[in-house]
Write a structure and sequence with these properties.
transferase, alpha/beta, binds 4'-deoxy-4'-aminopyridoxal-5'-phosphate, aminotransferase, serine biosynthesis, Aspartate Aminotransferase, domain 1, 16% strand, Aspartate Aminotransferase, domain 2, cytoplasm, three-stranded antiparallel β-sheet
């Protein structure tokens, strides 16, 4: 039986990546030792690190105006790093609230800087919606504007990018990085925890406009300091070397698949299969407005919620893992990142159809 893992994160990685890592596990590059056992300052690791950054720059079309950092502490590490690095004494940070993760980012930022929160949720009649970006009431002055293009828990994705005449735009791309084409130049800081589309948890990728490295910010740990990390090639302290290596294997796999444009086609196709089935069914519902439905995280609810436990038990028996919705929103959630094949979506829809027939 094939097993498909719909976990929101740490999420499934491409089987080809895992096999490559397994092959190389005990003997990396013919050194007779694992990549985990070599110095990050030795030539083989440094070369890998450089190639990895170059690959990410190619995949995302990142220009020299940006530094690319491989940092510790995952997504939440960046919830702290962003305000610490970008704080200005004379302007507040603006946090756009579109759901649970952007709200979490604002809460963390308040420890380090003044925060103005703007709620742009537009929920009506039990449907989750978001105001169009052009209608967001952004203030004239801000140290930066933070938003989350894909709310992993709420299943809400924003396809338009906010703009501001002066304030940098900061995006938490943890759950959509590399899943579809974006223009990096529309942003000033992009960050992402790795454990969805990149590799093992704990690693965070940060893409930061170099001009922002000059901001004084507030006193902060060296490992969360963008300027220090940029200057030291993300090796101020020992980096998460295995996670970095695995990210490189994932980036190679992405290049082989045809890069981000190919992923975008693949992800749109997968999401359409699932949403179309849910919309046509009277057994399941999705509560997110059609124009902001996530391509990566598809929450759905059974009309009869008393069947939830049975749905979860039987889906697990069928090899469809981790479909339970986040405890804050309930119901079910299928996370379908880059690594999820179409066959996984087809298996899920087949199971859902069968379950609906047997329980109607
Ligand atoms: N932001 C988003 C959008 C997320 O989905 C997550 C984790 N699921 C985080 C931040 C936090 O990431 P971490 O657990 O790596 O701190």
């Amino acid at each position: 039986m094939s097993v498909y893992n719909f976990c929101a994160g740490p999420a499934m990685l491409p089987p080809a990546v895992m096999e490559k890592a397994q092959q190389e596990f005990l003997d990396w590059q013919g050194l007779g030792v694992s990549v985990m056992e070599v110095s990050h300052r030795a030539e083989p690791f440094l070369t890998m690190a450089q190639e990895c950054e170059a690959r990410l720059r190619r995949l995302m079309n990142i220009s020299d105006e940006f530094a690319v950092l491989f940092m510790h502490g995952g997504g939440r590490g960046q919830f702290a790093a962003v305000p610490m690095n970008l704080h200005l004494d004379d302007a507040p940070a603006v946090y756009i609230n579109t759901g649970i993760w952007s709200d979490g980012a604002a809460k963390e930022a308040k420890k380090y800087t003044d925060v103005v929160e703007i709620n742009v949720r537009d929920d009506k009649d039990g449907q989750f919606g978001v105001l169009p970006v052009s209608q967001w009431p952004l203030p004239e002055k801000a140290s930066y504007i933070h938003y989350c293009p894909n709310e992993t828990i709420d299943g809400v994705e924003l396809f338009d990018v906010p703009t501001h005449p002066t304030a940098p735009i900061v995006a938490d791309m943890s759950s959509m990085i590399l899943s579809r084409d974006i223009d990096v130049n529309q942003f000033d800081v992009i960050y992402a925890g790795a454990q969805k589309n990149i590799g093992p948890s704990g690693l965070a990728i940060v893409i930061v406009r170099k001009t922002l490295l000059e901001r004084e910010g507030v006193p902060r740990p060296g490992i969360l300091d963008y300027a220090i990390e940029a200057e030291q090639g993300s090796m101020y302290n020992t980096p998460p070397t295995f996670a970095w290596y695995l990210a490189d294997v994932v980036f190679k796999w992405l290049e082989e698949q045809g890069g981000v444009p190919a992923m975008q086609r693949h992800n749109k196709n997968k999401a359409a299969i699932l949403y179309d089935y849910i919309d046509a069914s009277d057994f399941y519902i999705n509560k997110v407005d059609k124009d902001c439905r996530s391509l990566m995280n598809v929450p759905f609810w059974l009309n009869d919620e008393s069947l939830n436990e049975r749905f979860l038990a039987l889906s697990q028996q069928a090899g469809l893992l981790a479909l339970e919705g986040h405890r804050f929103v309930g119901g079910m959630r299928a996370s379908i990142y880059n690594a999820m094949p179409v066959a996984g979506i087809e298996a899920l829809v087949t199971f859902m159809e069968q379950f609906a027939q047997e329980h109607s």
